[in-house]
Structure formats: C-alpha cells, structure tokens
Amino acid sequence: MFEEHCVLQSMRFPQKLWRIVNECQTGAIRWSANGDTVLLDYKKFQTEYLDARRPIFKTSNITSFIRQLNLYGFRKVTSHNRDPVCNSYNPHVHEFLHENFRADRTDLLFKVCRKTGGKSKCLQQEITRSAEEGPRLQTNCVSRLKLCQVHLPNTSYKPKEFLF
Amino acid sequence: MFEEHCVLQSMRFPQKLWRIVNECQTGAIRWSANGDTVLLDYKKFQTEYLDARRPIFKTSNITSFIRQLNLYGFRKVTSHNRDPVCNSYNPHVHEFLHENFRADRTDLLFKVCRKTGGKSKCLQQEITRSAEEGPRLQTNCVSRLKLCQVHLPNTSYKPKEFLF
DNA sequence: GGTTCTAGAACC
DNA sequence: GGTTCTAGAACC
C-alpha cells in the first residue's frame, strides 16, 4: 500500500488522474454516467487527495489542481448538458471534459498533454479535434436527455477493469 | 441577528469584508498582528462565510472570493515578510495586503475599489500609491523582524472598536 | 457590481 | 513538468 502510493506520486498528471478516477470509491472523483467526463467533488477531493500529510499531487490547493486540469485541456462542463449529478443538491460536484480522457480508453490517454505557450507537442490532438467535436457533442446531448429521464442518485459509470 | 445578516448582504465588497474581519472570532478571517494585512484561513472561511445555506457573499466558491480580492487590488503576501502565523503549521492561512485596507482606518476604505478594464475611478489611490509604497514597506519589514522574535501562537491584532 | 472559467507569467 | 498568483473575458 505504501509502495502503491509511491507509484502514484511518480506518475504524470493525466495518468495519475485516470488512475485515481478509477480507484476512488468515495465519490470524491468519478466518471460520469456515460464515462466520458469526470465528476469532481471539490470538498471531498480536497480532504481525500489534496491532504498535505499524504501528498499525491505536489499541491494541497484545489485551485492549483484546477489550473492543472486547464493546462492539460480539460474544460468545465456547464449549462444544460451537465451530468444530472451536478445539481443544486450537490453544490460541490463539478464536471470536466477532455476529448481524450474517457473511461476504458487508455489508448487515448497519450493525447492528453500539457498546453505550452508556443507549439503543442499534441499535434495529433489538434488535428482530430475539429473533426470529432461536432458529432460527439450531438451524441452526448441525446444520451444526456435520456439520462435525465431515468436518472437515479449516485448512478455513475463503473469501470470494468484497471489497465494500469 | 437576522436583520444583521441582511445588512451584511447588502453591503459592497470592501465594506462587507472590513466588517467581517472585525467581527470574526474563530480565526477564519482576522487582522494580522500589525493590523495592516488580513489573514484568511481558506478552510474555516469556506465553512463559516461561504456556506450556500447562509449566503453572505453571492458565491460559495473560495476561488471566486479570491478573484474579488484581486479585482479590488488586494495582493497575496508571500516570501519572508509574511505574518508569522502563516507557517507550515497553518497551511490554510493566507495573508492579503491592500494599501488602504487596515484595521481602525475606515477613513481609507473608500479608496478600496474595483479595478476596471479601462480607467479606474480610484484616481486618488493611483496617485498616492507610489509615494507611500517605499517607506511603508521598509517599516513593515522591521516590525515583522521584531514580531518573529517574540511571536506567540494566535497573537493577532484586536480591533479597538467597530465603526460600522 | 459580482461570479465563473480559463490563461498568462513567473517561479520552483 | 508542476505550482502559484493575478488578470482577461464573458456572463449574470
């Protein structure tokens, strides 16, 4: 278990995040029902994963963690197409989307990389983004509508297996 | 007490903040030992003053609260001239400085105003800042050195009277 | 005027 | 590559 913790610490941000989303059992961080976005409970996440006494990330600051998400291209999901878990009863839960950060898709994970000031190393990501954006979002909206009809509290995507 | 709460809600940010710094008894927010900066315990402050069930500010988000501080010209105090309370034993305590936000100086409070994109309404503040900056900081460093020698835990400036 | 999301820049 | 502080911009 101690060794496990050391492995986590040494990983890069996207890999570390993917691992944590899959292993967390408390709802601090989890996949949305579709498995294509991440649901983050700021309050729980701070307590469980940003505790300075047990450092997993180098910061204990939720703001710095959000900055990392943005630097890696995650975007907040707002407005009508949020996961139904993000409602007024769960004010601390926020949803983040990255085209290439999805449950069961470790094959895409290499495309999640840090945005740099100048030219990005994630060339492939840039190229494919515009082509995928349109249809994906459409599909997402339809499935979200269905979800809203049948949603039960705490329904969220359960990963089938851990690939790391 | 309920009425009191309504009054707080209707105040502008600097006045509201000044009031809270003076009335808070828990250490969530308080004056530094000198009374010229504000010590903010993110964790306690979130619980006590950003609770969505008892809204004082319109946000329950500590990040938005910090954005307000910055918009009004508060700056984080970093490096060696921090108040001794801001140490590794108090990881949630952060210190903020505004030239015109000080204990017992309500006469300066009108100069604490929102930075706008273009021209600021706080013309007087702009003019006096450069003249005051040098000597004030020097004095501050000396007194901080003394404080470091004699510092006792939880020592902080106690306001003499509430002027609102 | 207040809130939110994201990014710039400097630093480690 | 990660962290921190601050600001831009859009929105309410």
From TrEMBL, chains A, B:
Going by the entry's taxonomy, the superkingdom of the source organism is recorded as Eukaryota
Compartments where located = Nucleus
| Gene Ontology MF: a single term | sequence-specific DNA binding
Q: Name one GO cellular component term.
A: nucleus
Does this UniProt record's set of keywords contain DNA-binding? yes
UniProt keyword annotations, A-Z: DNA-binding, Nucleus, Stress response
Q: Please name one Pfam family that this protein belongs to.
A: HSF_DNA-bind
Ranges annotated as spanning the membrane? none
Q: Does the keyword Nucleus apply?
A: yes
Q: Which PANTHER family match?
A: HEAT SHOCK TRANSCRIPTION FACTOR (PTHR10015), HSF-TYPE DNA-BINDING DOMAIN-CONTAINING PROTEIN (PTHR10015:SF465)
Give the record's family classification: Belongs to the HSF family.
Entry protein name: Heat shock factor protein 5
Q: Which organism is it from?
A: Camponotus floridanus (Florida carpenter ant)
